[in-house]
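Practice problem: DUF2877 domain-containing protein
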Amino acid sequence: MLPSAAVPGAAAVWVADRLAGPPHHGAVVHAGDAAVYFRSAEDVIGVVSRHATAIPCSISTRADSVAEIFAGRLPAVGDEVRVGDGIADFSGHGVRVGRYVDFAMRPFDVAQVPAMREALEATDPASWLPDELDASVRDALRRDPAATLEQVLGRGSGLTPFGDDVVCGILATLLAADDPCAPRLQERVTELAPRRTTALSATLLRRAGAGDVLPDFAAVVTALLERPAEAPAAIAHLRTVGHTSGAGMLLGHCLALAHIHTRSCCP
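Answer key — structure tokens:
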């Protein structure tokens, strides 16, 4: 039985299309006060509170706690979710998409890269860039990211391992710059991620391959392009996302810009 009412939330168009598509069943893979994530086909979709960071696969609600949506009782991992008819139905408690959010990262021209790198250097990246990848791995990612994927995908703890966050930043940046290495990297990510990392992280990597990123990451890129004086504040905010997720994406962005500047793979 479908819920008589469904809580509205904001999400990407693809999430709304998934809820409106052919009915199917998924299962809860994570449940907490800030977010509940469930499988839908090969993807993971989140239902998040107003305090959680919006991501390209989440439905952002106005609830102070996700438990409010489920009458005070969070679903358990493994609980069934029915997806279809425009709703994600958790045993009578439904969520729908009431508003679209654009997660696309704005494109930029290669000619803008030197100014972006200069603005980044002004923020003293050595003081905030994480040191969770060996220098040799970082250098390999800069030179040929697709060939280095197997060394970083799934590396780190959490629902989105640090190495995956770095790859998300690299992939989204190369795509936005129309870099010739981007298609090969996107192909390799699509091939490797499902079997090398978490389902949520694989979903976010696929979304990065479609050009979708966290709004906080997009804000950093926009600041570097248009308002360099605002870049330090945007970077500081992104670094607060997740345990190391924001920092990982920033590292990926830096590596991608360096790759574009000194391109050494792909004709």
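Discussion: The chain has two domains: 6-100, 110-261. Students who identified this feature from the tokens alone can consider the problem solved.
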